[in-house]
User: Which sequence fits this backbone?
C-alpha cells in the first residue's frame, strides 16, 4: 500500500509548488513541477491529471492575488517563483500621488451578487456514486471543508482549459446539475468545472436559506457580476491580473472527497489480494 507523505512533507498543493519553484534556477512546466513533487515526496499525488491541478493552483493564485501572487508565467506553461512584493506601507508610500488611469486601476469594493465561487475544480476529486458532496475551502485543508452541493448559480464545464458548456443551477442545485452531466451527452467531454454561487454562507460555512426569488440586485451589481463571469470564463489576455481583495475572500479551493481515499485503499488491498492468490503481498 502506498504511504502518504507525513510531517513537514504533507504539504498542500500550493505549498508543494512553491517549495519546488523556490529551489529551481529556471522556470518549470506543470509536468516538471509534478515530477519534482513526487521525487521529493512533498505530498501524495493522486488523480489522473495532477498537471492540470498544478496549473489550476497557479492560475488561480495569479488571478486572485495579482501582483501579490507567488507565481509568474514568463512563457506558456512555464512557471517561476516570485519574491514577495514590498510591504503595504512601502507600497502606499511609493504610489502616493498616483491617480488611477481608468476603471481597471480602481479597486472594486462591490462584489455584485456572487457570494462564493471556485475555478477549475477536478471532476475526479468528487465521489459521484454515493452521497454526493462538492467540497471546498479557503485553503485545501480538509478540516475547513464546505459542501457546495446545494449552491445555486451558474457553472462552466471545461475540457482541459477550454469551456465547452455553460449551465445554470436554479431549480436543481449545483450538485444535481453536475451529477446529471456525468451520464448525459456531455459525460465524456469534461474533466473540470468552475462555478459561481449566489447563495449566502453562514459564519460556520453552511449554505443558508436560498431566498433567490426575493433577492434584488442593482444595475451595478449585475454589471460587476457579468464582468467577473466573463473575465473568469474567457480569460481575456488584456485584462490585468492584479486581483481583487473582495473576490479573493469568496474564492474557494477544491478539497477532494475523503471517501475517495478510502475507496482507493480498498481497491489497492483488493488488487494485492488478487495478485497474491488471496494473501497480501509483503
Assistant:
Amino acid at each position: 500500500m502506498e504511504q502518504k507523505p507525513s510531517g513537514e512533507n504533507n504539504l498542500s498543493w500550493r505549498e508543494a509548488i512553491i517549495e519546488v519553484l523556490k529551489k529551481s534556477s529556471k522556470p518549470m512546466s506543470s509536468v516538471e513541477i509534478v515530477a519534482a513533487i513526487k521525487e521529493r515526496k512533498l505530498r501524495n499525488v493522486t488523480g489522473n491529471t495532477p498537471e492540470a491541478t498544478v496549473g489550476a493552483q497557479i492560475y488561480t493564485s495569479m488571478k486572485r492575488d495579482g501582483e501579490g501572487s507567488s507565481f509568474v508565467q514568463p512563457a506558456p506553461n512555464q512557471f517561476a517563483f516570485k519574491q514577495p512584493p514590498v510591504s503595504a506601507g512601502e507600497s502606499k508610500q511609493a504610489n502616493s500621488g498616483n491617480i488611477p488611469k481608468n476603471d481597471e486601476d480602481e479597486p472594486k469594493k462591490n462584489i455584485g451578487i456572487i457570494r462564493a465561487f471556485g475555478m477549475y475544480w477536478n471532476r475526479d476529486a468528487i465521489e459521484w456514486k454515493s452521497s454526493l458532496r462538492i467540497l471546498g475551502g479557503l485553503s485545501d485543508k480538509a478540516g475547513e471543508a464546505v459542501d457546495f452541493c446545494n449552491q445555486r448559480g451558474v457553472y462552466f464545464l471545461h475540457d482541459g482549459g477550454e469551456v465547452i458548456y455553460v449551465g445554470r443551477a436554479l431549480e436543481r442545485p449545483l450538485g444535481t446539475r453536475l451529477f446529471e452531466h456525468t451520464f448525459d451527452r456531455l459525460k465524456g467531454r469534461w474533466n473540470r468545472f468552475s462555478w459561481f454561487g449566489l447563495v449566502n454562507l453562514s459564519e460556520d460555512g453552511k449554505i443558508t436559506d436560498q431566498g433567490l426569488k426575493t433577492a434584488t440586485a442593482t444595475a451595478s451589481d449585475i454589471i460587476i457580476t457579468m464582468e467577473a463571469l466573463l473575465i473568469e470564463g474567457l480569460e481575456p489576455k488584456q485584462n490585468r491580473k492584479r486581483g481583487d481583495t473582495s473576490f479573493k475572500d469568496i474564492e474557494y479551493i477544491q478539497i477532494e472527497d475523503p471517501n475517495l481515499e478510502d475507496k482507493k485503499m480498498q481497491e489497492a488491498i483488493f488488487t494485492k489480494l488478487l495478485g497474491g492468490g488471496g494473501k497480501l503481498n509483503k
About this structure: Residues 116-255 form one domain.
